[in-house]
């Protein structure tokens, strides 16, 4: 019989993250204590709430969870469940995961090409595309056709976008703009740049005010 | 003169082969201007380098001349045989002796096509070195070279007048050359480019019309273009729907009237060039590419060869030369043979997409009798006999008519005689059947499997799991996988026996293979659920008996064999039963103890299958539930899936995507529940059904894009389709609800079946479904009310359970439809009577009633329902109900007090007795538990009869009053209330409580006023089920105007008469209230209505009070009851709002 994890393991507390900050940047930490910063694992945690289709190989009635009811599970019949549950079931070999529609080589290629062509950020297939790709490919690559290609493609998209992000951050700073608007960024991307950008800006602000 | 396709025979080794007729026979002159030559020989050349000379197609020992290692092309005229061979030469041999007669010309590579001009003086040869040479036969030094092609030359042809030469080349061009000037006259880029003859899509054999050479025929893709000589205009196109692959070769009949074409797919087509109509179609018996065509000089035969080196002949072509009005006939071939082709050779492929381009299963002979010159009118349009086995949209119109002409045109004078020698009329030999054509019976199959010819296929996909078969070079194996891994782990078996059929259940896997020459047909069962160590058994079927279909049930396995028998085995391998089927099996399905068999009942005609169905049950009492009734299919479709729903109702799907389910409540008829094709996006998409569930209503299937069957990889995902009964006007609200209702009824039939066959059923779900149905009925009722369809309302009410009828009555009276309400109450009464009878029978016959009752879900199901609801907190309700029931059963008439006492006494019994059998408590929540018919019945009866049988004084008063009112004012507020009869009431009651009194009076009041539509509820019955005490029902009323008035004025009354008792106060109040004017009373009533919302609170309080004194005083109990009643009565009215329709 299937037993459920009724509580999802939450990611590590944010405090442990701070300790990982390089010593050289410690003086910044005193200024901006990183409560606002999210660990990637926290973002991933959020991503795990996304729904994904699975084909269970067990039968189970509805389960009533705080986040909502799931099921009933019928063997062989596709059903939507949160990613965390899908992965849990998958790890116990209780289901097959059907990859989301966008997780398809052709569509991703198209997206990558568009991303490379456009100067702006293009809309992404899912707000958690990176996290989902990583999670699903790590745990259920046998259910996803052409997993390696997909991994590469998503990484390409990610790299392109991060490069754009760095570029825009660079021009933002070099032009000394007061604000900038960036559309279609995902949480993970924002989170990647946030710490660095905020610290930098703080630092620069300090330096500038010292100069004056 | 029918055209006959002679069987193919081996001519040469595989590869390009050419054919021509010898024209050296004796010549005859017919009608001076035409020559007809008798041809003695068919001459072919092929890849083996030989030229064979056949005396006839049956010649077993043809003469042969070896001309080289390979012969690419040949031409024969005037005793000279010209061949293009692999040594890059074009040589001449004498014919028929075969002596070498020198080399005509050479190329740097091999010649691809050689041809004579019309008189045989010149030979043209095209070569792979891009050149075309024209050589005089008599003097090979006189050569003309035509340069200009940029790729190997495909074919060459002479203008009959020798002025021009046409050639086609792999560079895509078709060029007309002026031979003398060696220049291009015109060039058309018509063809697809390629780099070599072997890679060309089509050989593009051009042909110039003999005689005047008016037209040049160029095969372009699937059409033939005709270009006019001189103007070089494209004047017309010959085409045919059946032609889907490029035409390789065209050839004119000697008379120049007909054009024959052979295509890559092996289709041979003959057009009449004048009418541009296709007059003959034939299909290569194996579908090989036709690469050469030659007309017999008489025009009655066509010889053709294919790329596999075989030689074929079409004989008896009616396209003879001499005259238009010649005798023509193209008649039907033996259909039986076609059927064999269709259903024996590649049955499965036929079912499959895209491969169904074989010939029409039936050809229709059409008789023509008009004198028109244009006699060769092909019968266009589709033959009826199609669609059944061929997929409409994918097949290349395969089913369409084999054109047939069955005409003896007017054989006027010379015309008939002119052709006689060449084409003798043979019609009398071959009587043509013109009636409906028999449909080839569909082959046996396993539901949920894909065709057996696929190397990777599903052998079974059902509720339990998936069985996949692999049969390719490396592997011959079977994979068994379970949806629910709890059943068993996946299995991988080597398929050494060559199993082709499989079924899968929770207990085992059943496999069967057909017999081979040495081995008998075997049945293998992997009984994995066995608790001993032997998990497998195998049985050989008797010699000459082949397994055709198999299925697994619970504890048994069944095999249908080629000897029209069904053999039953236990799952452990014990042979159990054996019985014969009336016809060849089509497929079987098992579920639990049920076995469903579909077989061929008879021969179907015109595309229809004649299937019969048997449903057997192997429970303790074995019986046949459906004995060989015809299985209804959509028009011209065949069965594509058969099975049971997960709940055990037989179900099947035909090739038109129609899903039908057994309707056990309608005499085992089949009801269509879904058309899967409606949800398909494109015409060639299909849904492959893998399972049907009734609860929840799910049709599980796999969407197949552009095919009927899913591929095994990538693993297909199951989709769920909803059911939809094809009722009329489902876009309207009414239609929708009707559809929902009947669907709900149909899909819950299984409950009654299951319970009747002793299975446990999910009562919750059943009750839910009944509730749903009743709600739908009520909605429909409300809708009909809104549409002023009262008759329809009554019809709907007849389907309702009794308590819903009371709701309906309320609704009707609220919407001021008194006549309707009356009729409804009649119905309610009827229903209550019915129910009572059942109740009485129930103790003895409860089980039978249940089984007999299935199908009548509306009325009958209540009894079981109530059991669960016998809860403590509802005790009062129950008590009361019990009392009332008892009362009704007793049929006693009592004074209220007595009634109460009786009730008290019998209560325990009532409760117990009624609990298992209680009729009404129904899906509609609490209110359902109130005695539903008491009130409405009474009112109605009194109203209608006007001569009520009195149960007590109050009743009497009420009913008489009411009837009077009804008759006078027809439900409108009456002006002259008479309250006199009230007086005795308090007397009879020694200790009435205020509540009771008030309620009684208010009820009376209301009766008078009758402004509230719900007043009907107070009507009392006078017939058999004698009404329970009036006050009970009346107490249900929310506060009335009088009560309000009393509340306000009590103080003043008390002030005036401080010594009055409670009852007297009310009496006094009554008197005062009566003295008020009608208007005032009305206004109070209005206020009361406005307050009715508050009433609930009030009642609760009362109820609590009542509960305290319960143990001591009957009166209090009574009050309690009445308050409970009130509460209940409220519920339905609020419920009503659920069904209310917006008036917009």
Automatic annotation (TrEMBL), chain A:
Highest taxon, organism lineage:
Eukaryota
A GO term from the CC aspect? CMG complex
Please provide an example of a Pfam family that matches this protein in its UniProt record: Sld5
Q: Where is the GINS subunit domain?
A: 102-203
Keywords, sorted A to Z: DNA replication, Nucleus
Q: Where in the cell is it found?
A: Nucleus
Q: Which SUPFAM superfamilies match?
A: GINS helical bundle-like (SSF158573), PriA/YqbF domain (SSF160059)
Q: Which CDD domains match?
A: GINS_A_psf2, GINS_B_Psf2
Q: Which GO terms describe its biological process?
A: DNA replication; double-strand break repair via break-induced replication
Instruction: Give every DNA replication complex GINS protein PSF2 N-terminal domain span.
Output: 39-98
Q: Does the keyword Hydrolase apply?
A: no
This protein's major location comes to nucleus
| Role, per record | Required for correct functioning of the GINS complex, a complex that plays an essential role in the initiation of DNA replication, and progression of DNA replication forks. GINS complex is a core component of CDC45-MCM-GINS (CMG) helicase, the molecular machine that unwinds template DNA during replication, and around which the replisome is built.
Q: Which family does it belong to?
A: Belongs to the GINS2/PSF2 family.
Quaternary state and interactors: Component of the GINS complex.
**Which protein is depicted?**
DNA replication complex GINS protein PSF2
Automatic annotation (TrEMBL), chain B:
Sequence ranges of the WD repeats? 146-187, 247-281
List compositional bias (Polar residues) regions by residue number: 845-855, 941-958, 989-1002
DNA-binding region, residues: 1035-1089
Chain segments carrying region Disordered: 831-1144
- Name the keywords, alphabetized: DNA-binding, Nucleus, Repeat, WD repeat
Q: Does the keyword Protein biosynthesis apply?
A: no
Record's subcellular location: Nucleus, Nucleoplasm
Q: Which GO terms describe its biological process?
A: DNA repair; DNA-templated DNA replication; mitotic cell cycle
* Functional description taken from the UniProt entry: Core replisome component that acts as a replication initiation factor. Binds directly to the CMG complex and functions as a hub to recruit additional proteins to the replication fork.
**Would you tell me the protein name for this molecule?**
WD repeat and HMG-box DNA-binding protein 1
């Amino acid at each position: 019989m299937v037993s459920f994890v009724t509580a999802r393991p939450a990611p590590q507390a944010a405090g442990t993250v701070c300790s990982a900050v390089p010593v050289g940047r410690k003086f910044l930490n005193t200024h901006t204590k990183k409560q606002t910063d999210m660990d990637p694992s926290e973002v991933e945690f959020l991503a795990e709430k996304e729904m994904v289709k699975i084909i269970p190989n067990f039968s189970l009635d509805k389960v009533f969870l705080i986040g909502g009811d799931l099921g009933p599970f019928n063997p062989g019949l596709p059903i939507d469940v949160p990613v965390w549950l899908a992965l849990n079931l998958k790890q116990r070999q209780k289901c097959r995961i059907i990859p989301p529609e966008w997780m398809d080589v052709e569509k991703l290629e198209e997206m990558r090409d568009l991303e490379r062509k456009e100067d702006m950020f293009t809309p992404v297939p899912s707000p958690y595309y990176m996290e989902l790709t990583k999670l699903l490919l790590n745990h259920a690559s046998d259910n996803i056709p052409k997993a390696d290609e997909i991994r590469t493609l998503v990484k390409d998209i990610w790299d392109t976008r991060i490069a754009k992000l760095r570029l825009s951050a660079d021009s933002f700073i070099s032009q000394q703009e007061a604000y900038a608007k960036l559309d279609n960024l995902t949480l993970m991307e924002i989170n990647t740049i946030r710490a660095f950008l905020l610290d930098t800006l703080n630092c620069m602000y300090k330096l500038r005010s010292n100069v004056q | 003169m029918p055209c006959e396709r002679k069987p193919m025979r081996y001519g040469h080794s595989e590869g390009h082969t050419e054919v021509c007729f010898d024209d050296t026979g004796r010549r005859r002159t017919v009608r001076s201007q035409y020559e007809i030559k008798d041809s003695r020989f068919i001459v072919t050349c092929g890849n083996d380098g030989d030229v064979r000379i056949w005396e006839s197609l049956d010649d077993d020992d043809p003469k042969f001349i070896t001309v080289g290692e390979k012969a690419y092309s040949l031409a024969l005229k005037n005793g000279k045989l010209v061949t293009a061979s692999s040594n890059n030469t074009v040589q001449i041999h004498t014919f028929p002796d075969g002596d070498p007669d020198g080399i005509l010309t050479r190329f740097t590579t091999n010649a691809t096509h050689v041809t004579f001009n019309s008189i045989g003086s010149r030979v043209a040869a095209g070569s792979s070195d891009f050149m075309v040479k024209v050589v005089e036969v008599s003097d090979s030094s006189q050569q003309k070279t035509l340069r200009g092609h940029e790729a190997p030359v495909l074919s060459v042809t002479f203008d009959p007048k020798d002025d021009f030469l046409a050639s086609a080349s792999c560079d895509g061009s078709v060029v007309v050359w002026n031979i003398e000037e060696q220049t291009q006259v015109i060039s058309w880029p018509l063809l697809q480019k390629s780099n070599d003859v072997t890679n060309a899509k089509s050989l593009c054999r051009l042909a110039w019309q003999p005689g005047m050479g008016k037209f040049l025929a160029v095969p372009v893709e699937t059409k033939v273009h005709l270009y006019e000589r001189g103007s070089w205009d494209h004047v017309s196109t010959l085409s045919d729907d059946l032609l889907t692959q490029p035409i390789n070769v065209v050839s004119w009949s000697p008379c120049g009237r007909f054009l024959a074409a052979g295509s890559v797919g092996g289709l041979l087509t003959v057009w009449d060039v004048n009418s541009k109509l296709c007059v003959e179609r034939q299909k290569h018996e194996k579908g090989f590419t036709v690469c050469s065509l030659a007309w017999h000089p008489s025009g009655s035969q066509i010889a053709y060869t294919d790329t596999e080196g075989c030689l074929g002949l079409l004989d008896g072509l009616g396209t003879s030369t001499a005259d238009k009005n010649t005798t023509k006939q193209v008649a039907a071939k033996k259909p039986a043979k076609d059927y064999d082709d269709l259903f024996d050779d590649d049955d499965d492929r036929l079912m499959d997409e895209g491969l169904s381009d074989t010939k029409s299963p039936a050809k229709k002979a059409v008789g023509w009798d008009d004198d028109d010159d244009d006699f060769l009118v092909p019968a266009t349009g589709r033959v009826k006999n199609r669609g059944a086995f061929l997929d409409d949209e994918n097949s290349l119109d395969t089913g369409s008519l084999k054109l047939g002409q069955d005409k003896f045109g007017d054989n006027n004078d010379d015309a008939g005689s002119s052709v006689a020698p060449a084409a003798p009329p043979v019609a009398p030999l071959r009587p043509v059947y013109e009636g409906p054509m028999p449909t080839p019976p569909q082959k046996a199959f396993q539901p949920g499997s894909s065709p057996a010819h696929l190397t990777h296929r599903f052998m079974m996909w059902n509720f339990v799991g998936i069985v996949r078969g692999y049969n390719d070079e490396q592997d011959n194996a079977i994979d068994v996988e379970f949806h629910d891994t709890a059943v068993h782990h996946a299995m991988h078996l080597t398929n050494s026996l060559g199993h082709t059929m499989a079924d899968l259940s929770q207990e085992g896997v059943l496999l069967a293979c057909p017999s081979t020459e040495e081995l008998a047909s075997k049945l293998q069962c992997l009984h994995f659920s066995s608790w001993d160590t032997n998990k497998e058994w195998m049985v050989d079927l008797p010699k000459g008996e082949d397994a055709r279909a198999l299925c697994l049930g619970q504890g048994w396995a069944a095999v249908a064999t080629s000897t029209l028998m069904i053999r039953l085995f236990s799952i452990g391998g014990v042979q159990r039963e054996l019985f014969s089927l009336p016809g060849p099996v089509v497929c079987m399905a098992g579920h639990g103890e049920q076995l469903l068999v579909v077989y061929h009942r008879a021969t179907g005609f015109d595309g229809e299958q004649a299937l019969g169905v048997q449903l057997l049950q192997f429970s303790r009492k074995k019986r046949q539930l459906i004995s060989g009734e015809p299985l209804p299919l959509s028009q011209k479709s065949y069965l594509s899936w058969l099975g049971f729903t997960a709940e055990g109702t037989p179900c099947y799907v035909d090739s038109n995507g129609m899903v039908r389910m057994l309707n056990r409540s309608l005499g085992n008829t089949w009801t269509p529940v879904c058309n899967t094709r409606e949800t398909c996006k494109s015409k060639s998409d299909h849904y492959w059904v893998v399972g049907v569930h009734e609860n929840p209503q799910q049709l599980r299937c796999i969407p197949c894009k552009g095919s009927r069957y899913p591929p095994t990889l990538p693993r297909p995902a199951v989709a769920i389709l909803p059911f939809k009964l094809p009722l009329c006007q489902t876009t309207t609200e009414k239609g929708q609800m009707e559809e929902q209702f009947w669907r709900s009824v149909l899909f819950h039939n299984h409950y009654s079946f299951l319970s009747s066959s002793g299975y446990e059923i999910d009562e919750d779900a059943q009750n839910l479904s009944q509730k749903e149905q009743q709600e739908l009925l009520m909605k429909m009722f409300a809708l009909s009310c809104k549409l002023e369809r009262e008759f329809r309302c009554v019809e709907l009410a007849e389907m309702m359970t009794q308590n819903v009828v009371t709701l309906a009555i309320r609704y009707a009276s609220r919407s001021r439809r008194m006549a309707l309400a009356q009729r409804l109450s009649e119905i309610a009464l009827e229903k209550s009577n019915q129910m009572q009878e059942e109740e009485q029978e129930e103790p003895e016959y409860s089980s039978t009633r249940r089984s007999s009752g299935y199908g009548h879900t509306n009325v009958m199901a209540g009894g079981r329902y109530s059991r669960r609801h016998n809860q403590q907190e509802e005790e009062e309700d129950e008590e009361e109900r019990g009392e009332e029931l008892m009362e009704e059963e007793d049929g006693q008439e009592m004074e209220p007090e007595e009634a109460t006492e009786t009730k008290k006494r019998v209560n325990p019994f009532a409760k117990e007795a009624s609990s298992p059998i209680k009729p009404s408590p129904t899906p509609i929540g609490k209110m359902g538990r109130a005695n539903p018919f008491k009130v409405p019945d009474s009112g109605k009866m009194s109203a209608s009869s006007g001569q009520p049988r009195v149960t007590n004084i109050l009743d009497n008063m009420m009913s008489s009053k009411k009837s009077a009112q009804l008759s006078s004012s027809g439900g409108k507020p009456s002006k002259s209330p008479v309250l006199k009869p009230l007086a005795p009431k308090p007397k009879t009651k020694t200790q009435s409580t205020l509540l009771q009194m008030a309620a009684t009076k208010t009820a009376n009041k209301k009766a008078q006023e009758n402004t509230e539509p719900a007043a009907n509820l107070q009507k009392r019955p006078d017939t058999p089920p004698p009404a329970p005490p009036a006050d009970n029902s009346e107490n249900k009323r929310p506060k009335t105007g009088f009560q309000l008035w009393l509340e306000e004025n009590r103080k003043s009354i008390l002030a005036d008469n401080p010594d009055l008792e409670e009852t007297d106060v009310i009496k006094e109040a009554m008197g005062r209230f009566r003295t008020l004017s009608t208007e005032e009373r009305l206004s109070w009533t209005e206020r009361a209505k406005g307050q009715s919302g508050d009433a609930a609170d009030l009642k609760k309080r009362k109820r609590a009070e009542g509960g305290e004194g319960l143990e001591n005083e009957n009166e209090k109990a009574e009050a309690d009851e009445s308050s409970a009643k009130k509460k209940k009565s409220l519920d339905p009215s609020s419920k009503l709002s659920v069904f209310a329709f917006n008036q917009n």
